[in-house]
Amino acid sequence: MARSSSVATARSRFRTVVRRLSAALAARCSVDLRALAAFRIGLGALVIADLIRRSRSLSAFYTDDGVLPRSALFADYGEVYSVHALVGEPWAVALLFALAGAFALALLAGYRTRLAALASWLLLLSLHARNPMVLNSGDSLLRMLLFWSVFLPLGARWSVDALRRAGAGTDADAAAGAGGSERDPGADDGDESATAGPSGSAVATVATMAVLIQVLLMYVTNGIHKRGSDLWMDGEAVAYIMQADHFTYLLGNHLAEFTGLLRGLTVLWIALLFASPLLILLTGIPRAAIASLFVGMHLGMAVTMPIGLFPIVVVVGFVPFFQTPVWDAAERAVDRFGPPAALERWRARLESVGESLASLDASIPRPTPSGALAGLRARVGRGRPLLSTVVPYVFLVLIVLSSAQAVGYAETPDPAENALETVEMDQHWRMFAPDPTRTARWFVTVGTLADGTERDVLRDSPVEFDRPTRAEATYRSARWRKYLGNVASTDNENHRSYLANYLCEDWNRTRETAVENVTIHQQYERTDPYNGSVVAANGFELIEYDCSGEFIQDE
Asked: Could you tell me what percentage of the chain is helix, strand and coil, using 3-state DSSP and rounding each to the nearest 5?
């Protein structure tokens, strides 16, 4: 009898411990539905902004007239899973850009949210596969955040889907009063399980845990990489980065002389990287305080370094870290002070548009599915909860393994690596690590014209090898800087020929005096940030290209 009593006591204690651990885990993985709504809006806006920025070099980077025509893409990368690689004309690629923009707009508005998120992720994956030479860490993070968004209830608040569900709920109440029933039209999006409760309700699922850990892994692995760098650990890294002026603009062009401030920022950044696990360990307001420090640092990067949308992508990635107490406090502040009249008018207009879209969607006639189709749809519906749990769980394990492998702490099995490569979710976060950029670099593309004169054919300017006033100004955009940096790598010698061929054809297509030969040089200069002396300065030739020669040259 005593033994039975002790076993029962042990079981009871074990259940208590499990409940407490489960509650603690749920508290750390919960994300407020309002945060998910803001996260959705941010993702949609980012995809649209990214498409607009890429469109400035649409022909150069994504068509057969550019630096990587499809023949070269397939020759270098083999089998490529990309819809964008099926077409080579600028107008066809522009249509794909427009399609991606339409899905991103639907995601922003929260219309058929899960479908919009899935389509946006697939089209972004396709776009990235079309030209890997122009990708940066911001692209990788945006792609991964979109992947996890497919499994999150992003349309539960502030969305057309929420208005559709609210309208269906009203109709369902009326039907129930008359002895009938009405199906929730928002159920197709898979968000219905998250919509119960007050406006400040939160959800804790494998997917919410995954999207938080995804951001955390970026900092943990990057911090481990930086730990092996003397410049980072000695507090000098940011000072060296700021004197490499192809990586600075706006405020960054004026910070290089404040070495004491830059040392302090280096120490603060390293401290934040090492403290990043607190983003998961803490909850509520303390977590929001740590997240705000990271957000502030990235906003600082946005006004000092021309690194594309990366800082803004990270800021959007931090939105889910702000939990219910933060959103409740924000709502109380709005209720107390009231929104400005202009903001109130815009909100009313947006709600009106959303209600119109919801009404229009509800009024569209839909065919009644046949018996076989209805059965298939029912089976898919029954399998959706399993799919929405198993897939994020599997990939959560895989990204943890991949991160551990990236820093030398584990090995990822080949099948797992293949799965990660298929969806482009390998975890490599070496931003400015282990050693930071210390050398200013710029390119000179000497084109010999038919009349014997020379011209820099990339910038259509006189040929000048001396260090420019601002090296950053010599690049057309941050994505061009990334591309040219990759071209200079010894692993990408073929791409030097592709670039030279593009410069020849682009010049001859738009100028009266043809270019006959192009020679591409990379110049560099390293300066000591503490005394301003030049430590190293030189340049080297990447390729000399005959514009009448063959397209691919292995030199």
From this structure: 65, 10, 25
Instruction: Give the tens place of pLDDT for each residue, 346-366.
Output: 566 666 655 565 565 555 665
CB proximity list for 51: less than 8 A, separation 6 or greater: 97, 100, 101, 104
**Distance (Å, whole) CA 189 – CA 185:** 9
- What pLDDT is stored for residue 193 in this prediction? 39
Each residue of 20-73: pLDDT tens digit?
888 888 899 999 999 999 999 999 999 999 999 999 999 999 999 999 999 999
CB 269 within 8 A of CB 222: no
- Yes or no: say if 232 and 433 are a contact pair by the CB < 8 Å rule: yes
The CA distance from 145 to 313, in Å, is 9
Query: Of the ranges 44-53, 126-135, 385-394, 526-535, which one carries the lowest mean pLDDT score?
Result: 385-394
- What are the tokens at 445? 């593309």
3-state SS, residue 21: helix
- Straight-line distance from the first to the last Cα atom of the chain, in angstroms, rounded to the nearest whole number: 86
Contact 240, 436 (CB under 8 A): yes
Amino acid at 349: R
Write down the residue that tokens 């499990």 correspond to.
Answer: 18
The Cα 55–Cα 91 span in angstroms is 11
Distance, CA of 478 to CA of 311 (rounded, Å): 13
| Angle in degrees, 0-180, between the axes of helices 284-302 and 259-275, rounded to the nearest 10 | 140
Helix 310-318 to helix 284-302 angle (10° resolution) is 170
- The two beta strands, 515-527 and 439-449, are antiparallel
Would you say 108 and 48 are in contact if contact means Cβ atoms under 8 Å apart? yes
pTM: 0.89
Please tell me the distance from the alpha carbon of residue 317 to that of residue 346, in angstroms, as a whole number: 26
Q: Name the amino acid, one letter, at 198.
A: P
Position 185 scores a pLDDT of 36
What residue has token string 């983003």?
279
HEC assignment per residue over 314-358 = HHHHHHHHCCHHHHHHHHHHHHHHCCCHHHHHHHHHHHHHHHHHH
**Are 249 and 304 spatial neighbours (Cβ–Cβ below 8 Å)?**
yes
Q: With H, G, I as helix, E, B as strand and everything else as coil, classify residue 62.
A: helix
Q: Directed axis angle between helix 206-227 and helix 2-29, to 10°?
A: 70
Q: 137-149 and 113-130 are packed helices; what angle lies between their axes, rounded to 10 degrees?
A: 150
Q: Do residues 116 and 41 touch, judged by C-beta distance below 8 A?
A: no
CA dihedral of 431, 80, 485, 407, whole degrees rounded to 10: 30
Q: How many CA atoms lie within 13 A of 101 on its CB side?
A: 14
- Main-chain dihedrals φ then ψ at residue 519, nearest 5 degrees: -120, 125
The residue type at 96: L
**Residue 64 per-residue DSSP state:** T
Question: DSSP code of 44?
Answer: H
Distance CA 186, CA 110 (A): 11
Q: Which two tokens stand for residue 111?
A: 């219309």
